[in-house]
Design a protein that fits this description.
The chain has 340 residues and is mainly α. It contains ten helices and no strands. The protein is flat, with a radius of gyration of 22 Å.
Length: 340
Amino acid sequence: MNNTSQVKKFRAIGLLTVFAVYLLILVGGAVRATGSGMGCPDWPTCFGQWIPPVSEQQLPDNYQQIYADRGYAETRFNVTKTWIEYLNRLLGVSIGLLIFATMLSSRHFRRSDAVVTGVAVIAFFAVVFQGWLGSRVVASNLQPGMITVHMLMAQLIVALLIYTVIRSQRDTVSSAGVTELPPVFKTVAIAVMVMTLVQMVMGTQVRESIDIIARSLNHESRELWIERIDLIFYVHRSFSSIILFTNLWLVWKLWTIMPVSHVLRRLAAGLAVLLVMTILLGVTMDRLHMPAFAQPLHLWFASLIFGVQFSIFHLYRCAQHNSSGSNRGVTLDTSQTAPV
């Protein structure tokens, strides 16, 4: 296999893994929205079985007492919640296999760019750690702090994967137009990534407050949920305006300066769409009393926003690198390299 084929293979596997991680983030949000996080009260088995039961009759008569004695608060069998959580776990295992394939494929870069291989290895062990962390989340009966760390680890894994894919293709990133971007562009790009992560942490805390309120009302009277939420909700909602206008500045600069065919301009358009969709979902949850479908989508779009922001930042750095050297760059094929 020649070098070009190996590079393309790595890009394909890496992007497939990125897409799979984003799918897992969406499914994980659905698990949370449906209250299925304890659908399997143990890990890695589910009610002590590798393939979950389909009826309560398949469990011991005293199964609730067994799991209560182990410290689990939610022990009542619910076939729908059990299988939602189990499918979430299966997808997690699939991603483990994909990230392993990504790591193996990165061996090609050991001599030409060892950083690609090194980061791919770090990403693999990050996924292993994420799997262990998932088991701790279950063991802690969905302790709020553990859920937040679990979410942040998912964003780190996405960033590591995107970094390896883009770095493996960095010499093909066109430098056209990048020198016309203002020097402050890099600083603003870093700032929006940090603000997005902070906003996601606050969003997780809002969700945790909602969960507590929902349980106190037996998951009824949704119109009262927001009325009873604490200050963090209003900080989260207000902070979104700052994030919106800062991101729009990035979008405007990329859209007006970069060539039409450049991947940075296309990512800017994607970022604008994601921002609008995320805000609309936030308004939907506020006005329509937290509909279940909107909650996982809101987090998913926020995760996509961070991924696009990170892609823009790293592609910008690659374009700067290419502009400082010889004219060796060509326009990147966005249909194969864009992470969204």
